[in-house]
From TrEMBL:
NCBIfam families reported for this sequence: PRK05218.1 (NF003555)
Protein's name in the database: Chaperone protein HtpG
Cross-referenced InterPro entries: HATPase_C_sf, HATPase_dom, Heat_shock_protein_90_CS, HSP90_C, Hsp90_fam, Hsp90_N, Ribosomal_Su5_D2-typ_SF
Lineage of the organism: Bacteria, Pseudomonadati, Pseudomonadota, Gammaproteobacteria, Lysobacterales
Keyword Cytoplasm included in the entry's annotation: yes
Domain Histidine kinase/HSP90-like ATPase: 26-183
Cross-referenced SMART domains: HATPase_c
Region annotated A, chain positions: 1-336
Species whose genome carries this gene: Luteibacter sahnii
Transmembrane intervals: none
Length: 556
């Protein structure tokens, strides 16, 4: 089975088509994606070599090399990382075995247009090579396998690829791009070099390039062109904002700057470093509600990449956070199973949560505009924390913002603290109303009496609100109360008025009760209303009608 030609799975062909057409305005990111794969391959080998040192015995200096050939019009990216066997090649490039490809397609079949932002996130980075190349060759051999087990993969990115056995003397992978007409700008050393600086400077392995001699690369004279340091391990004062931002972009495969970050080193019985970022916009899978396969939080142990461990290191409601955690004292041979029960890790997780909440708190005070951006992107995700994280409930609640009868229309600007700061004398509760839209909340007849008394009511109309409020009974010692539920607070004058009104309306109430029968549990004269003739009210323990409807729609 030395030589064969295979077809891409239909979905791959489709993804290829989309990627090459949608990425065009950002075509230079192919280099970032290929370097990122090379770096991943080095990470993987370093990790495997922990258990089997013979894998790197012959050549322990993991590195990435970039070269160009003006005559052949090719660029090559080579790494001496883990490499691929024939089966690996077939599985990793050419099928949709990588679930990322499938999810990418699913995502795109919705209303979303193909968006360059998504490419890296969905693990289709390799295909970006076809944005600038009309033919791509991959020559690779898996570490630890004999030289004869090498493979040559080649494709024009249209529908088929070929596979061939080949002797490959050095382990690792070389990707060769045969550039399309008109892409000659990438054949210049300074251009490649500046792209590396722009997108890949932080990569933790040396990226080397030959010097130029008579317009051609000189294979005898290589220079390292990135800083090749683990950014997070340097001291804060030595890192510029741009370095932080670039590191984030590569880590999160994002084109946008991060909104904020926090970088900390904890020394003590257990030492670790955290560098955590809050993005500006939700990554695509978050918008899709996808929770499986959370990526973007990398666990290192003494600078050795161990695994993506977002699920182990952050609670679900902080799933938008990206970053790196580098622990000094964990055993290097940890597995996911061990991680899940590791006590040290529990501490690190708690520290990460604290860092993120501190960061958000600071943002809310010092950079309110950015904080608004944050809430627009992740406010509803954060609300899940009220339910999920009882120990930080109050801190999370402090960060939330709502529309209110004393706020700015539908805009969510009022915090619980704002509310408390202008509570009426003797007011003993924080009042809110829930509905399924701003208009329904703001127009609710149940607000009338409170409005008339000048009491502020928070207007809650996001899907998660009702669920969240089920877990948030008080804030800073004040009870949270739904205006639609339970007894209403009356002063003495009001009470007398209501008793008189009840007596007067007794025949009407009786008649309404008979007419409505089973559908209501009681009909009463209400203190809630000033203008409207009637409204529905719930007992304290009852579910709001729109929530009941939502649950019914969801088939529960
Ligand atoms: P992702 O990197 O998100 O997994 P890519 O499309 O960039 O998605 O790469 C697909 C897969 O191809 C990788 O997961 C990896 O298994 C394999 N691969 C790509 N480049 C290399 C490389 N240089 N060395 C080893 N494996 C590679
Ligand atoms: Mg990749």
């Amino acid at each position: 089975m030395s030589q064969e030609t295979r077809k891409f799975e239909a979905e791959v062909a489709q993804v290829l088509h989309l990627v090459t057409h949608s990425l065009y305005s950002h075509k230079e990111i192919f280099l970032r994606e290929l370097i990122s794969n090379a770096s991943d391959a080095c990470d993987k080998l370093r990790f495997e070599a922990l258990a089997d040192a013979s894998l790197t015995a012959d050549d322990a200096d993991l590195r990435i090399q970039i070269s160009w050939d003006p005559d052949a019009r090719t660029i090559s990216v080579r790494d001496n990382g883990i490499g691929m066997s024939r089966e690996d090649v077939v599985a990793n490039i050419g099928t949709i075995a990588s679930s990322g490809t499938r999810r990418y397609l699913e995502a795109l079949s919705g209303e979303q247009k193909a968006d360059a932002r998504l490419i890296g996130q969905f693990g289709v980075g390799f295909y970006s090579a076809f944005v600038v190349a009309d033919r791509v060759t991959v020559i690779t051999r898996r570490a630890g396998q004999p030289t004869g087990s090498g493979v040559r993969w080649e494709s024009d990115g249209k529908g088929e690829y070929s596979l061939e056995d080949q002797n490959v003397t050095e382990r690792g992978t070389t990707v060769v791009l045969h550039l399309k007409e008109g892409e000659d700008e990438f054949l210049k050393r300074w251009q490649l070099r500046s792209l590396v600086t722009k997108y890949s400077d932080h990569v933790a392995f040396p990226i080397r390039m030959p010097q130029e001699k008579d317009g051609k690369p000189d294979p005898t004279d290589f220079e390292t062109i990135n800083s090749a340091s683990a950014l997070w391990s340097r001291s804060k004062s030595e890192i510029s904002d741009d370095e932080y931002k670039n590191f984030y972009k590569a880590l999160g495969h994002d084109f946008n700057d991060p909104l904020a970050w926090t970088h900390n080193r904890v020394e003590g019985s257990q030492s670790f470093t955290t560098l955590l970022y809050v993005p500006e916009q939700p990554p695509f899978d978050l918008m899709m509600g996808g929770r499986d396969e959370r990526k973007g939080l990398k666990l290192y142990i003494k600078r050795v990449f161990i695994m993506d461990a977002a699920e182990e290191l952050l609670p679900n409601y902080l799933r938008f956070v990206r970053g790196v955690i580098d622990a000094d004292d964990l055993p290097l041979n940890v597995s996911r199973e061990i991680l899940q029960q590791n006590r040290q890790l529990e501490k690190i997780k708690a520290a990460c949560v604290k860092r993120v909440l501190d960061l958000l708190d600071k943002l809310s005070r010092d950079e309110p505009e950015k904080f608004v951006t944050f809430l627009n992107s992740f406010g509803n995700t954060l609300k899940e924390g009220i339910v999920e994280d009882a120990s930080n409930r109050e801190r999370i609640a402090k960060l939330l913002r709502f529309a209110s009868t004393k706020g700015e229309g539908a805009q969510k600007t009022v915090s619980f603290d704002d509310y408390m700061g202008r509570m009426a004398v003797g007011q003993d509760a924080i009042w809110y109303v829930t509905a399924d839209s701003y208009a329904a909340a703001a127009g609710s007849p149940q607000l009338e009496a409170l409005k008339a008394k000048g009491i502020e009511v928070l207007l809650m109309f996001d899907r998660v609100d009702e669920w969240m409020l089920g877990y948030l009974n008080e804030y800073d010692g004040k009870r949270l109360r739904n205006v639609a539920k339970g007894e209403f607070p009356l002063d003495e004058a009001d009470k007398a008025k209501q008793e008189a009104a009840s007596a007067e309306a007794a025949p009407l109430l009786e008649r309404a009760k008979t007419l409505l029968g089973e559908r209501v549990s009681d009909v009463r004269v209400s203190a809630r209303l000033t203008d409207s003739p009637s409204c529905l009210a719930l007992a304290d323990f009852e579910m709001a009608p729109h929530l009941a409807r939502l649950l019914r729609e969801a088939g529960q």
